[in-house]
Amino acid sequence: MRVLGTIDMAQGNSIQARIPTVSQMTFTDEDGHPRQFTWRTLQTWFSRYQKHGVTVMENQPRSDKGKVRKVTLEDVLEALRKVQPKVHGKTPTLALLYRLCIEAGLLTRAQIAPNTFRRVVKQYELLKPDDDCVNKHRLAFAKAHANEMWQADTLYGPHVQINGSPVQTRLIAFIDDASRVCCHGQFFPAENVDTLIESLRAAFYKRGVPHALYVDNGSIYSSKEIPQICARVGCLLHHTPVRDGAAKGKIERFFRTVRDQFLARDLDLSSLDALNRQFTQWVEEHYNAQVHSILGMSPLDRFALDRKGFVSSRPTRPTTSYSSSRKNAWVKPACSTPSPMTENRSIHQQPNFNL
After folding, report:
1. CA dihedral defined by 277, 282, 284, 288, rounded to 10 degrees?
2. Contact of 173 with 290, CB cutoff 8 Å
């Protein structure tokens, strides 16, 4: 404050003329050490004082300090798992793993710097053996009502012919936690935000809007569009802990059933539509209709027990759909919703909106 007070008393007809004069002066701090400040520092202090007073004179830390902003933790973990088999012998250094990730094109220096890479790997123990996560003490849980929580994830599927070339598909699926009903599952030629929005819209159309959605930390599930959609329809979005795939046990168990019972069949892989038709038929006629060993009834029968409490999500026009605009950074839902995320909302409450 003494330095700022000197600006008012310095020679000059304006503040801009007085600040360079004060920058040539020498001040003494509390310990008796001489201090001299540049004109840019003085100008910054004076501007802060004029706008917000003395409370903001100290430099504030960045709100995103210590966080990775341009790459997700799942991307770093996936890159590490791909390059680790290339290293033989002794335990590889983080510098070597980083160089291999860059050379393989899995990461770029623009996404994550070497120091940030080392800090993230150590902080989240990404090189820790998977056994430490598998042996983690867990307690079984299940929601009391259908549509209280869905679990969602992505599975690599078979190759199909698209424009004359084989393309590996991705299955995006949603499982209801209480009833184990497959709310929706669809194969796509790519895994991105647009395909996730398309499958999410179809799931809402089929089974209504859940109270919560439980997903991992993958790039598409951590995108800015998904929280906006969930907020608009009144659905809570939860993420699993990093490197803890077993936290989504029900969807992982469903994918195991898909691999053992569906993908093991002699499928028609001539087109993506043919694959999706076969998968939908298998889900509705076999998986959802068969008696579940834990429930003692079929998933559809268990799902129907709570049907009165479902939040409807049917579009008023067939052409209405979600659309995302990354340039404008907003998402337009196919509904007009009340205020999202109401604290008193329960799964038996019927909000007045259509999807």
Report:
1. -150
2. no
CATH number given to 150-332: 3.30.420.10
Q: Which two tokens stand for residue 167?
A: 């393309």
User: Could you give the CA distance from residue 19 to residue 11 in angstroms, rounded to a whole number?
Assistant: 9
Question: Of 170, 126, 133, 139, whose CA–CA distance to 246 is shortest?
Answer: 133
Q: Whose CA is closest to 320, among 336, 309, 304?
A: 336
Contact partners, residue 69, CB within 8 Å, separation at least 6: none
Beta carbons within 8 Å of 67's beta carbon, 6+ residues apart? none
How does pLDDT run across 200-259, given as a tens digit for each residue? 999 999 999 999 999 988 888 888 899 999 999 999 998 887 766 667 788 988 999 999
Domain ranges of the chain: 2-56, 73-127, 150-332
Spatial neighbors of 137 by CB under 8 A, at least 6 apart, are: none
Burial level of 322, CB count in 10 A (0-12/13-18/19+)? buried
C-alpha dihedral sign at 335, 336, 338, 339 = positive
Q: What is the pTM of this model?
A: 0.55
Q: Report DSSP state, residue 270.
A: S
The span from the CA of 106 to the CA of 146, in Å, is 40
Report the relative pairing of strands 212-215 and 182-188 from DSSP bridges.
unpaired
Helix (H, G, I), strand (E, B) or coil at 171: strand
- What are the phi and psi torsion angles at 17 (to 5°)? -80, -30
Measured CA to CA, the distance from residue 75 to residue 107 in angstroms comes to 8
| Residue in this structure with the two tokens 């994918």, named with its chain if needed | 255
Residue 80 burial (CB < 10 Å; 0-12/13-18/19+)? buried
pLDDT digits (tens, 9 = 90+) for 69-118: 778 887 888 888 888 888 876 678 899 999 999 999 989 998 899 999 99
Q: Residue 166 carries which DSSP code? A: E
For helices 94-103 and 114-123, the axis angle rounded to 10 degrees is 120
CA distance 167 to 148: 35
Q: What is the pLDDT of residues 176-198, one digit of tens each?
A: 998 999 999 999 999 999 999 99
